Amino acid sequence: MVHPDSIHQRICTAKREGRKCFALLIDPDEVSLGSLPALAELGEEAGVDFLFVGGSLLVHNTLSSCLSRLKASTRLPLVLFPGSPLQIDDQADALLFLSLISGRNAELLIGQQVISAPYLRQSKLEVIGTGYMLVDGGAPTTVSYMSNTTPLPADKPDIAMATALAGEMLGLKMLYLDAGSGAKHPVSEAVINRVSTATSVPLIVGGGIRTPERAFQSANAGADVIVVGNAIEKDRRLLRSMAEAVHGSM
Fold this sequence. Notes:
By secondary structure, the chain is α/β, with parallel strands linked by helices. It has helices at 7-16, 36-46, 63-73, 106-122, 142-147, 157-169, 189-198, 212-221, 230-234, 238-247; strands at 21-26, 50-53, 78-80, 94-100, 126-134, 174-178, 203-206, 225-228.
């Protein structure tokens, strides 16, 4: 039985009620520790629903310190978005247990998950099985290189749909369409709509979303959670308008 206060249940309830959620992605490599309290406060004021923390490659060993600063600065839920088993920390509230179902790299489909599962079983983290699908965003990204996988074609909604459907049938609790950090183009409305109408679990969408208009369009196409990272890092004034755009969609 899912606890009614769990992160997963909150997202499911919002989906059932037709409410969209907005998540701010914080890459520990891209922010200074000193800036985190102000960023967290800004997130609360803007109406951010979740803080996702992690990255495809963490060069600096600051994940724990980053979580500690955030934990002391905000009551917003902290959700780990891990690029590897090294990015696991009990200071967070939940972890997206990602399986890269869009690729054919067995290590990221199940291998790394086998390594981390025993540790996660003993941790206090809420573990949310999530089917991760990398979509071609028009440029090579860190995640495509690090995962050694080919992204799903941006103009083939049926391939994305079939992949997502397989993930849901395998029992994954959520799905994540991602164009990757620094993508030239976000996941198209056609792909989002095709996936969201074919599946019933919550759909997260991120990568290449740089404007409130794009955030609104992605949510309106069927995304249940919109994730923004790079755009906010470059212009934090966007945060409030992004959140308002997402929450104003249906």
